[in-house]
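Hey,
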Amino acid sequence: MTTVRQYDGENARTRWRERDSTMTTMRQCDDDSATIRWRQCDSTMATMREYDD
């Protein structure tokens, strides 16, 4: 199961979904630049956060 949080202005939505693998795409935003990394989770629970400015 994965927690997906989407931010749109001051609104936030949280939903759960199942993942077929333990690989997670992590995106880190630092002002105008973004870094995308892959990492393997130790458990099947993963948290993904998506920020929209």
